[in-house]
Amino acid sequence: MHILGLIIMLLISAAVWYSRLKALGGAARDVGKVARRVRNAPRKFAFMHRAGRTGLRAVDDPREASAILMVLMAGGYGEQPMDPEYERVIQQEASKVFDLDAGEAEDLMTHAVWMVRDVELVSGVVLRMTQMIKQTPGIGPTELVDLYEMLSAVGQAVTAPNEEQQRILELYRGKVGLSA
Length: 180
Hints:
The protein has seven helices and no strands. By secondary structure, it is mostly helical. It is elongated, with a radius of gyration of 26 Å.
C-alpha cells in the first residue's frame, strides 16, 4: 500500500512540475510577443503619425513626396489597384535611393498610396509634390535627376510608359528644369 501511495505522490508531483513548466513556457511566449511589439513600436508610431496628417498639403518630407510621385506613375491613385510589379519597383527604388530597409520602403509606399486615395487631378498633385521637393534645402540637380530616373523606372516596370505616365514625366521635367 505504501508503494501505491508513493507512486501516486510521484505522479502528483510530476503533474505539478509539468503545469509549472507549461506556465513558464507561456510566460516566455508572452515576453517574446511584448518584445516584438516594443521593437516594432517606432515604425508603428511613425506610420500612425504620418497617416494622421491631413491631406497632401501636409507633405513636407521629400522622400514622402517622391513616393507619392512614384505611386502616381504606377496609377495607384483614386483607390485603383496597383500592379504588383509596380509595387516591387517602387519599393526597390525607394530602398536603393533613400537607403531604406524593406519594411520602411513598404511603409513609405503604403503611406503614399493612402495619401493619393482621393486624387482625381493628377497633374496638380505632381506639380505640388515636385515644387515641394525642389524647394527642400539640400536637394540639388543630382537628386532631381535621381528622382527622374526613379519615375522612369516605375513607368517602365510593366510596359512602356503610357500617355498619362509620359505626361507626369513631362510635368516633372518642366517643373525642375530638366527639359532641353
